[in-house]
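Field guide to reading this record: the first block holds the primary sequence, the second block holds the structure written as discrete tokens, and the final block holds curator observations. Each block starts with its own label. This record concerns 2-phosphoxylose phosphatase 1, catalogued under organism Macaca fascicularis.

BLOCK 1 — SEQUENCE
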Amino acid sequence: MRYFLKSMEHSIWPSSAVHLIPVSTAKNGVSSKSRKRIMPDPVTEPPVTDPVYEALLYCNIPSVAERSMEGHAPHHFKLVSVHVFIRHGDRYPLYVIPKTKRPEIDCTLVANRKPYHPKLEAFVSHMSKGSGASFESPLNSLPLYPNHPLCEMGELTQTGVVQHLQNGQLLRDIYLKKHKLLPNDWSADQLYLETTGKSRTLQSGLALLYGFLPDFDWKKIYFRHQPSALFCSGTCYCPVRNQYLEKEQRRQYLLRLKNSQLEKTYGEMAKIVDVPTKQLRAANPIDSMLCHLCHNVSFPCTRNGCVDMEHFKVIKTHQIEDERERREKKLYLGYSLLGAHPILNQTIGRMQRATEGRKEELFALYSAHDVTLSPVLSALGLSEARFPRFAARLIFELWQDREKPNEHSVRILYNGVDVTFHTSFCQDHHKRSPKPMCPLENLVRFVKRDMFVALGGSSTNYYDACHREGF
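BLOCK 2 — STRUCTURE
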């Protein structure tokens, strides 16, 4: 059976991959006219717990240009710097369903094949000239674009490249053409580029960069390598963070044990592919099934029957339930506050240098994973944000008030939606202040102090919070 995916306008909140966070009504609503409504329209949107609809949103199939609120500010504010966190684009599965044929997806880039982008051919041409460019080891050994007739495990697809070419072009139109963030003769030190050591993250970063700065000068590009998916650089050792994660994983395991329908579904699927149930579950079949769905390829069949949409729905529905409980138990929040602190601390440091008039690192790009963005979203208090879809983007904008040059403000945007006033550090700002933007000091205070307060205990810094006894 084949499932036809019509092009559809993306929901305002992106969807989840392995985890889904259902949308609930904002506590205080959104009252200000200057703030974009972020809740789905109940009349036109399907139920948010529909697992197939959620999965299609997660696929993020490139279609019409999406609405975005990046770069929106009162006229007397000047854009100072932009910090972009992305999840890599659409990829081939990381796991194979045992004893089934791998989905046949072509990972070469073909200009006249869907999904199409007018810059795709030029992107390939430009990447072919970059082999001698500056990439921190081991990035210099990775291919700069996908190029296998049958995708390799985890490889970026043409869809993934197009998703980020679109992201880059959208950011170019706003930040360069409208706000002139970088001068025409921009220099290498005005960009900060960092990626994990996977080809899919490096290639996604390059695709976005090419959409943002077409035909850029390779001599001005330097991608740094980040060994950790949490982008924690030299501060990755954090025993308490790992304890939170272990407790969270235990919670997930216990919830799964309670779900008899899930167990029955895994049992049925295991019989179809003729392996023990335990082996099938370990193969994480949902990862492969999402690829079939996103690329409109039939689910696999054997002589014992076919894996089908009903199996898929059961697994996805369980994930929705898992997200509900995850929010209630708060263990993942503890993990997120410690997991996201290093990269948030680095970001505010870069912002503070920009407020002093420093002109380097005006545009920062982190090309990362779902397990990078998800803790940052959770730590910021964006509990309504669904798990990052393919090519998700989370953006921090720094603005200066031209009328009061010493005052700086921040905006946080998730896939083009302004979520600043849904963050824990600025959700009450409009009640207490007439200022239209969230002060930078709110974010600084949150990262330097309030993240540790939220963890409980008496810790006032990252090291102590990571090593406190008796957790």
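BLOCK 3 — OBSERVATIONS
The two ends are 51 Å apart (CA to CA).
Residues 1-43 have pLDDT under 50 and may be disordered.
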